[in-house]
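[User]
If only I could read backbone structure tokens as easily as an amino acid sequence. I have put the entry right below:
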Amino acid sequence: MEPGTLVFDSDDLYPAWDVTGPAPGHFDQYDVAVLERLVHKCLKQKETPIYGGEDNEDIEVYALNRITWYGAYGLHFTHPQVNARVGQLLMNHIKGKAKT
């Protein structure tokens, strides 16, 4: 590969918005209490990989750790777009999995 060439299209690598910009209007905003509850539920999950031969199943532990880290980031900086994205990730990950 030649220096300066991209393997992926730059539109895929650099979306129109990122965690430092304003959140899009259609995104739900999560307050600190909701993010704390979601992070707490994530932490209650066992860090046991669920692997049944599917390509996407061997990253469960990595995803949980990464999402939890972003949750802490969102709580610390309380940026609207960070809160929105972290809230989405946490909701998707714990849906139907976390103990109550």
In short: Helices lie at 10-13, 32-44, 60-77, 80-94.
